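re: ur question from the group chat, yeah i did fold both. here u go
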Amino acid sequence: MMALLQRVNEASVRVDGEVIGQIGHGLLVLLCAEKGDTEAVADKLLTKLLKLRIFGDETGKMNRSVQDVGGGLLLVSQFTLAAEVAGGNRPSFTQAASPEDGRRLYDHFVAQARQAHPLVQTGRFAADMKVALVNDGPVTIPMRMMA
Protein backbone atom coordinates (compact mmCIF):
# COMPACT_ATOMS: atom_id res chain seq x y z
CA MET A 1 0.00 0.00 0.00
CA MET A 2 1.27 3.43 -0.90
CA ALA A 3 0.66 6.83 0.64
CA LEU A 4 1.80 10.32 -0.13
CA LEU A 5 1.75 12.44 3.04
CA GLN A 6 1.60 16.21 2.84
CA ARG A 7 1.92 18.27 5.99
CA VAL A 8 -0.69 20.99 5.61
CA ASN A 9 -1.98 24.12 7.28
CA GLU A 10 -5.35 23.31 5.72
CA ALA A 11 -6.79 20.95 3.11
CA SER A 12 -10.19 20.16 1.64
CA VAL A 13 -11.88 17.89 -0.87
CA ARG A 14 -14.82 18.87 -3.07
CA VAL A 15 -17.12 16.63 -5.07
CA ASP A 16 -19.62 18.28 -7.42
CA GLY A 17 -18.79 21.66 -5.88
CA GLU A 18 -19.56 20.54 -2.31
CA VAL A 19 -16.89 20.29 0.40
CA ILE A 20 -17.06 16.71 1.68
CA GLY A 21 -13.87 16.66 3.77
CA GLN A 22 -11.80 19.41 5.36
CA ILE A 23 -9.06 19.78 7.97
CA GLY A 24 -6.87 22.52 9.38
CA HIS A 25 -3.33 21.73 10.53
CA GLY A 26 -2.47 18.08 9.90
CA LEU A 27 -1.84 15.58 7.13
CA LEU A 28 -3.38 15.19 3.71
CA VAL A 29 -2.87 11.51 2.91
CA LEU A 30 -3.26 10.25 -0.65
CA LEU A 31 -3.74 6.46 -0.50
CA CYS A 32 -3.27 3.75 -3.10
CA ALA A 33 -3.87 0.04 -2.64
CA GLU A 34 -1.76 -2.22 -4.83
CA LYS A 35 -2.23 -5.80 -5.96
CA GLY A 36 -1.55 -8.17 -3.09
CA ASP A 37 -2.16 -5.62 -0.33
CA THR A 38 -4.03 -6.79 2.76
CA GLU A 39 -5.68 -5.28 5.81
CA ALA A 40 -2.51 -6.09 7.76
CA VAL A 41 -0.47 -3.97 5.32
CA ALA A 42 -2.99 -1.12 5.67
CA ASP A 43 -2.78 -1.36 9.48
CA LYS A 44 1.03 -1.26 9.36
CA LEU A 45 0.94 1.87 7.15
CA LEU A 46 -1.56 3.60 9.43
CA THR A 47 0.48 2.84 12.55
CA LYS A 48 3.61 4.25 10.92
CA LEU A 49 2.01 7.45 9.60
CA LEU A 50 0.32 8.24 12.93
CA LYS A 51 3.69 8.08 14.70
CA LEU A 52 5.87 9.63 11.97
CA ARG A 53 7.64 12.64 13.51
CA ILE A 54 7.29 15.29 10.80
CA PHE A 55 5.88 18.21 12.80
CA GLY A 56 8.13 20.75 14.48
CA ASP A 57 8.76 20.94 18.20
CA GLU A 58 9.43 24.17 20.10
CA THR A 59 12.87 24.44 18.46
CA GLY A 60 11.51 23.78 14.95
CA LYS A 61 13.02 20.29 14.74
CA MET A 62 10.80 17.61 13.20
CA ASN A 63 10.14 15.74 16.40
CA ARG A 64 6.35 15.46 16.75
CA SER A 65 3.74 13.25 15.13
CA VAL A 66 0.27 14.20 13.90
CA GLN A 67 -1.03 12.65 17.12
CA ASP A 68 1.39 14.71 19.23
CA VAL A 69 0.20 17.98 17.68
CA GLY A 70 -3.50 17.07 17.56
CA GLY A 71 -3.61 17.52 13.79
CA GLY A 72 -6.29 16.29 11.43
CA LEU A 73 -6.11 13.56 8.81
CA LEU A 74 -7.69 14.00 5.38
CA LEU A 75 -7.65 10.58 3.67
CA VAL A 76 -8.10 10.58 -0.11
CA SER A 77 -8.02 7.51 -2.36
CA GLN A 78 -5.72 7.93 -5.35
CA PHE A 79 -4.99 4.88 -7.49
CA THR A 80 -2.75 6.95 -9.78
CA LEU A 81 0.06 6.66 -7.22
CA ALA A 82 0.58 3.19 -8.71
CA ALA A 83 1.38 4.66 -12.13
CA GLU A 84 4.16 3.00 -14.09
CA VAL A 85 5.67 5.40 -16.63
CA ALA A 86 8.81 3.59 -17.82
CA GLY A 87 7.35 2.32 -21.09
CA GLY A 88 5.72 4.78 -23.45
CA ASN A 89 3.95 8.01 -22.70
CA ARG A 90 0.71 6.74 -21.20
CA PRO A 91 0.87 5.65 -17.55
CA SER A 92 0.00 2.05 -16.78
CA PHE A 93 -1.92 1.26 -13.61
CA THR A 94 -1.57 -2.52 -13.68
CA GLN A 95 -0.07 -2.61 -10.18
CA ALA A 96 -3.07 -0.83 -8.63
CA ALA A 97 -5.51 -3.05 -6.77
CA SER A 98 -8.80 -3.84 -8.48
CA PRO A 99 -11.54 -1.28 -7.74
CA GLU A 100 -13.23 -3.77 -5.38
CA ASP A 101 -10.04 -4.48 -3.45
CA GLY A 102 -9.07 -0.81 -3.48
CA ARG A 103 -12.43 0.21 -1.97
CA ARG A 104 -12.27 -2.55 0.64
CA LEU A 105 -8.76 -1.55 1.74
CA TYR A 106 -9.53 2.18 1.67
CA ASP A 107 -12.67 1.65 3.78
CA HIS A 108 -10.67 -0.50 6.19
CA PHE A 109 -7.95 2.14 6.45
CA VAL A 110 -10.52 4.87 7.15
CA ALA A 111 -12.31 2.78 9.79
CA GLN A 112 -9.04 1.98 11.56
CA ALA A 113 -7.91 5.61 11.38
CA ARG A 114 -11.19 6.75 12.96
CA GLN A 115 -10.63 4.32 15.84
CA ALA A 116 -7.05 5.48 16.38
CA HIS A 117 -7.29 9.24 15.78
CA PRO A 118 -9.90 11.82 16.82
CA LEU A 119 -10.06 13.96 13.65
CA VAL A 120 -10.39 12.04 10.37
CA GLN A 121 -12.02 13.40 7.22
CA THR A 122 -12.18 11.70 3.82
CA GLY A 123 -12.67 12.09 0.15
CA ARG A 124 -15.03 9.81 -1.79
CA PHE A 125 -13.70 6.62 -3.33
CA ALA A 126 -13.74 6.65 -7.16
CA ALA A 127 -15.23 10.17 -7.33
CA ASP A 128 -13.91 13.05 -9.40
CA MET A 129 -12.46 15.05 -6.51
CA LYS A 130 -10.98 18.53 -6.33
CA VAL A 131 -8.33 18.62 -3.61
CA ALA A 132 -7.09 21.93 -2.26
CA LEU A 133 -4.26 22.35 0.22
CA VAL A 134 -1.87 24.79 1.77
CA ASN A 135 1.32 22.77 2.13
CA ASP A 136 3.22 23.45 5.36
CA GLY A 137 6.96 23.54 4.80
CA PRO A 138 6.53 22.11 2.24
CA VAL A 139 6.81 18.65 3.73
CA THR A 140 5.81 15.83 1.38
CA ILE A 141 6.75 12.24 2.18
CA PRO A 142 6.09 9.12 0.11
CA MET A 143 5.48 5.87 2.03
CA ARG A 144 5.09 2.27 0.89
CA MET A 145 4.31 -0.72 3.05
CA MET A 146 4.44 -4.29 1.83
CA ALA A 147 3.43 -7.59 3.34
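okk and heres the other one u asked abt
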Amino acid sequence: MTKSLIALAVLSTASLANADAVTYAIDPSHTFVTFEASHFNTSTLRGRFDKKDGSVVFDRQAKSGKAEITLETNSVSTGVAPLDKHLRSKDFFDAEQSPSVKFVGNRFEFAGDKVSAVSGTLTMLGKTLPVTLKANRFNCYQNPLLKREVCGGDFETTIARSQWGMSYGLDYGLPDNIRLLIQVEAVKQ
Protein backbone atom coordinates (compact mmCIF):
# COMPACT_ATOMS: atom_id res chain seq x y z
CA MET A 1 0.00 0.00 0.00
CA THR A 2 2.89 2.39 0.73
CA LYS A 3 4.24 1.88 -2.80
CA SER A 4 0.79 2.71 -4.20
CA LEU A 5 0.64 5.95 -2.19
CA ILE A 6 4.14 6.94 -3.31
CA ALA A 7 3.25 6.19 -6.96
CA LEU A 8 0.05 8.24 -6.61
CA ALA A 9 1.98 11.14 -5.08
CA VAL A 10 4.55 11.04 -7.90
CA LEU A 11 1.80 11.01 -10.54
CA SER A 12 -0.03 13.88 -8.83
CA THR A 13 3.15 15.94 -8.69
CA ALA A 14 3.84 15.22 -12.38
CA SER A 15 0.31 16.36 -13.30
CA LEU A 16 0.73 19.59 -11.35
CA ALA A 17 4.04 20.25 -13.05
CA ASN A 18 2.29 20.13 -16.44
CA ALA A 19 -0.78 22.06 -15.28
CA ASP A 20 0.45 25.34 -16.79
CA ALA A 21 1.55 23.90 -20.13
CA VAL A 22 -0.44 25.36 -23.00
CA THR A 23 -0.58 24.09 -26.58
CA TYR A 24 -0.21 26.48 -29.52
CA ALA A 25 -0.71 25.57 -33.20
CA ILE A 26 1.68 27.14 -35.66
CA ASP A 27 -0.10 29.65 -37.89
CA PRO A 28 1.15 28.92 -41.44
CA SER A 29 0.14 32.41 -42.62
CA HIS A 30 2.45 33.99 -40.01
CA THR A 31 5.23 31.39 -40.06
CA PHE A 32 8.04 31.52 -42.60
CA VAL A 33 11.07 29.25 -42.76
CA THR A 34 13.80 30.67 -44.97
CA PHE A 35 17.44 29.91 -45.65
CA GLU A 36 20.39 31.91 -46.88
CA ALA A 37 23.65 30.82 -48.49
CA SER A 38 26.49 32.67 -50.10
CA HIS A 39 26.37 32.38 -53.88
CA PHE A 40 30.03 32.03 -54.88
CA ASN A 41 30.94 34.86 -52.46
CA THR A 42 29.09 37.27 -54.73
CA SER A 43 25.55 37.58 -53.42
CA THR A 44 23.16 35.81 -51.08
CA LEU A 45 20.89 33.05 -52.33
CA ARG A 46 17.61 32.96 -50.43
CA GLY A 47 14.87 30.35 -50.38
CA ARG A 48 11.94 29.23 -48.30
CA PHE A 49 9.66 26.31 -47.56
CA ASP A 50 6.07 27.11 -48.50
CA LYS A 51 4.45 24.16 -46.69
CA LYS A 52 5.02 23.82 -42.97
CA ASP A 53 3.15 22.57 -39.94
CA GLY A 54 3.78 22.31 -36.24
CA SER A 55 2.92 23.04 -32.65
CA VAL A 56 4.40 24.39 -29.46
CA VAL A 57 3.65 23.30 -25.90
CA PHE A 58 4.77 26.09 -23.63
CA ASP A 59 4.84 26.40 -19.84
CA ARG A 60 5.84 29.90 -18.76
CA GLN A 61 5.89 29.09 -15.05
CA ALA A 62 8.20 26.10 -15.43
CA LYS A 63 10.13 27.87 -18.22
CA SER A 64 9.90 24.78 -20.38
CA GLY A 65 8.30 23.62 -23.56
CA LYS A 66 8.42 21.55 -26.68
CA ALA A 67 8.34 22.87 -30.23
CA GLU A 68 7.89 20.86 -33.41
CA ILE A 69 7.93 22.16 -36.95
CA THR A 70 7.82 20.03 -40.08
CA LEU A 71 8.74 21.36 -43.53
CA GLU A 72 7.76 19.70 -46.79
CA THR A 73 10.93 19.48 -48.89
CA ASN A 74 8.91 19.47 -52.10
CA SER A 75 7.76 23.00 -51.23
CA VAL A 76 11.25 24.56 -51.35
CA SER A 77 11.10 27.78 -53.36
CA THR A 78 13.74 30.27 -54.45
CA GLY A 79 11.71 31.97 -57.17
CA VAL A 80 13.86 30.27 -59.82
CA ALA A 81 12.08 27.14 -61.12
CA PRO A 82 15.19 25.26 -62.41
CA LEU A 83 16.99 25.88 -59.10
CA ASP A 84 13.94 24.71 -57.12
CA LYS A 85 13.90 21.50 -59.16
CA HIS A 86 17.61 20.97 -58.46
CA LEU A 87 17.13 21.62 -54.72
CA ARG A 88 14.40 18.94 -54.66
CA SER A 89 16.71 16.42 -56.35
CA LYS A 90 19.04 13.85 -54.76
CA ASP A 91 21.84 16.44 -54.86
CA PHE A 92 20.17 18.41 -52.07
CA PHE A 93 16.87 17.65 -50.26
CA ASP A 94 16.00 14.43 -52.14
CA ALA A 95 12.30 15.27 -51.78
CA GLU A 96 11.17 11.96 -53.24
CA GLN A 97 12.98 9.86 -50.60
CA SER A 98 13.00 12.47 -47.80
CA PRO A 99 9.68 14.34 -48.01
CA SER A 100 10.21 16.38 -44.84
CA VAL A 101 12.66 18.15 -42.57
CA LYS A 102 11.72 18.26 -38.89
CA PHE A 103 12.90 20.33 -35.95
CA VAL A 104 11.97 19.17 -32.45
CA GLY A 105 12.95 21.59 -29.69
CA ASN A 106 12.78 20.21 -26.16
CA ARG A 107 14.87 22.69 -24.17
CA PHE A 108 13.78 26.31 -23.86
CA GLU A 109 16.21 28.90 -22.51
CA PHE A 110 14.95 32.16 -21.03
CA ALA A 111 16.24 35.67 -20.45
CA GLY A 112 13.85 36.85 -17.77
CA ASP A 113 10.38 35.87 -18.97
CA LYS A 114 11.30 35.81 -22.68
CA VAL A 115 12.44 32.75 -24.64
CA SER A 116 16.05 33.36 -25.71
CA ALA A 117 16.81 30.01 -27.40
CA VAL A 118 15.30 26.65 -28.19
CA SER A 119 17.57 23.59 -28.40
CA GLY A 120 16.65 20.26 -29.89
CA THR A 121 17.25 18.19 -32.98
CA LEU A 122 16.98 18.69 -36.72
CA THR A 123 16.17 15.64 -38.83
CA MET A 124 17.05 15.94 -42.50
CA LEU A 125 17.91 13.31 -45.11
CA GLY A 126 17.36 10.60 -42.50
CA LYS A 127 19.92 11.98 -40.05
CA THR A 128 19.15 13.64 -36.70
CA LEU A 129 21.61 16.09 -35.13
CA PRO A 130 21.46 18.69 -32.32
CA VAL A 131 20.61 22.29 -33.23
CA THR A 132 20.00 25.43 -31.18
CA LEU A 133 17.79 28.21 -32.49
CA LYS A 134 18.60 31.62 -31.04
CA ALA A 135 15.60 33.88 -30.42
CA ASN A 136 16.13 37.39 -31.74
CA ARG A 137 12.66 38.39 -30.67
CA PHE A 138 9.93 36.66 -28.66
CA ASN A 139 6.56 37.90 -27.47
CA CYS A 140 3.00 36.84 -26.68
CA TYR A 141 -0.01 39.03 -27.38
CA GLN A 142 -3.79 38.91 -27.50
CA ASN A 143 -4.72 38.73 -31.20
CA PRO A 144 -7.63 41.14 -31.78
CA LEU A 145 -9.03 39.15 -34.73
CA LEU A 146 -8.69 35.65 -33.35
CA LYS A 147 -9.55 36.66 -29.77
CA ARG A 148 -6.83 34.29 -28.59
CA GLU A 149 -3.27 34.53 -27.37
CA VAL A 150 -0.53 34.26 -29.99
CA CYS A 151 3.14 33.68 -29.14
CA GLY A 152 6.06 33.80 -31.50
CA GLY A 153 9.33 35.28 -32.53
CA ASP A 154 12.25 35.29 -34.90
CA PHE A 155 14.68 32.39 -34.47
CA GLU A 156 17.88 31.55 -36.30
CA THR A 157 20.84 29.23 -36.51
CA THR A 158 23.61 28.34 -38.94
CA ILE A 159 24.15 24.72 -39.91
CA ALA A 160 26.81 22.90 -41.91
CA ARG A 161 24.68 21.03 -44.48
CA SER A 162 27.41 18.41 -44.99
CA GLN A 163 26.70 17.09 -41.46
CA TRP A 164 23.41 15.77 -42.85
CA GLY A 165 25.10 14.35 -45.96
CA MET A 166 24.21 17.25 -48.27
CA SER A 167 27.62 17.81 -49.83
CA TYR A 168 26.81 18.58 -53.48
CA GLY A 169 29.02 21.37 -54.87
CA LEU A 170 31.30 21.73 -51.87
CA ASP A 171 34.29 20.77 -54.02
CA TYR A 172 33.73 23.69 -56.39
CA GLY A 173 32.74 26.47 -54.03
CA LEU A 174 29.14 26.08 -52.94
CA PRO A 175 28.99 26.92 -49.23
CA ASP A 176 28.60 24.39 -46.47
CA ASN A 177 27.20 26.87 -43.96
CA ILE A 178 23.51 27.66 -44.36
CA ARG A 179 21.72 30.25 -42.27
CA LEU A 180 18.20 29.16 -41.23
CA LEU A 181 15.67 31.78 -40.19
CA ILE A 182 12.34 30.84 -38.66
CA GLN A 183 9.72 33.50 -38.15
CA VAL A 184 6.94 31.82 -36.20
CA GLU A 185 3.63 32.71 -34.65
CA ALA A 186 1.51 30.10 -32.91
CA VAL A 187 -2.11 30.37 -31.75
CA LYS A 188 -3.23 29.18 -28.32
CA GLN A 189 -5.54 26.18 -28.59
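fwiw on the second one: Residues 2-17 form the longest helix (16 residues). The chain has two helices and eleven strands. idk if thats what u expected
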